[in-house]
Amino acid sequence: MRRFFVAEIDEGSKTVRVRGEEFIHLKKVLRLKAGSPIAVFNGRGVELTGIIESIGPDSASVKIEGSSVGEKESPVRIMLLQGLVKGEKPELIVQKATELGVAEVHFYSTSRTVPVIGEEKSVYKISRLRKVAIESAKQCGRS
Questions:
Q1: Residue 113 CA neighbour count, 13 Å, CB half
Q2: How many C-beta atoms surround the C-beta of residue 84 within 10 A?
Q3: Which of 62, 67, 83, 99 could form a disulfide with 140 if both were Cys (CB 3.0 to 4.6 A apart)?
Q4: CA-CA distance, 25 to 28, in Å (whole number)?
């Protein structure tokens, strides 16, 4: 079953709209049609299963049929504190940590840290790391 990230869902949702990049992936890449079963999750432990009711020009409507809240998450909440590293290594760290069950990853700077991130670059980097975490959660089945 294909899984999609939708931030604004909760346990009681009866219908869900898939928008943005997730919708483009659903429609253009996977070419799913109405009647296809999918799962949606919000990144906070809620995962809902349902069937695509309709696909519009900018969103897909999903009728929810079931839910699994917190079933795939560890009862132990793990936080990783990681010194800031150069290059693409932060993405690899976030990817593997997410796959292993880490709930939060925090990077910090020390007096010996080489990389220095400016304000505008850090906003981009945070959004990129968030995207990597979502992709990793989709791949490994975490909610």
A1: 14
A2: 15
A3: 99
A4: 6
